[in-house]
């Protein structure tokens, strides 16, 4: 995953530096599982959060039971299942190259967002 601050910094680099005209970039950070994401939120918030993997059919039924139209529920459940399988992660180093440093990890982004301002 990639955090908004890193994506914004990459956009600044592309818009303010030479050599990016016509270029295409795959922007992503270090991969993580949803179990790892839940553990990070548990740590940061100080309350147990557990990721429970459910089938597409079960998730679709839950969403339709909450009033989501069946077609939308099926699409959301399918997209979330793909996310859980890591289909949106990329091995590309484009983001790190644009930033000039490693991308912020999901763990660090969550910790940073939780810090008092």
TrEMBL record:
Domain of life: Bacteria
InterPro entries attached to this UniProt entry: NAD(P)-bd_dom_sf, NmrA-type_oxidoreductase
PANTHER family the record matches: NMRA-LIKE DOMAIN-CONTAINING PROTEIN, QUINONE OXIDOREDUCTASE 2
Descriptive protein name: NAD(P)H dehydrogenase (Quinone)
């Amino acid at each position: 995953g990639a955090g908004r601050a890193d994506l914004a910094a990459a956009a600044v680099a592309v818009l303010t530096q030479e050599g990016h005209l016509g270029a295409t970039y795959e922007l992503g950070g270090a991969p993580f599982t949803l179990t790892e994401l839940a553990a990070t939120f548990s740590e940061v918030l100080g309350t147990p959060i557990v990721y429970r993997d459910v089938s597409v059919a079960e998730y679709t039924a839950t969403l339709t039971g909450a009033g989501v139209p069946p077609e939308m529920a099926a699409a959301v459940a399918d997209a979330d299942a793909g996310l859980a399988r890591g289909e949106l992660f990329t091995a590309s180093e484009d983001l790190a190259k644009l930033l000039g440093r490693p991308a912020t990890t999901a763990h660090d982004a969550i910790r940073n967002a939780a810090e008092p301002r």
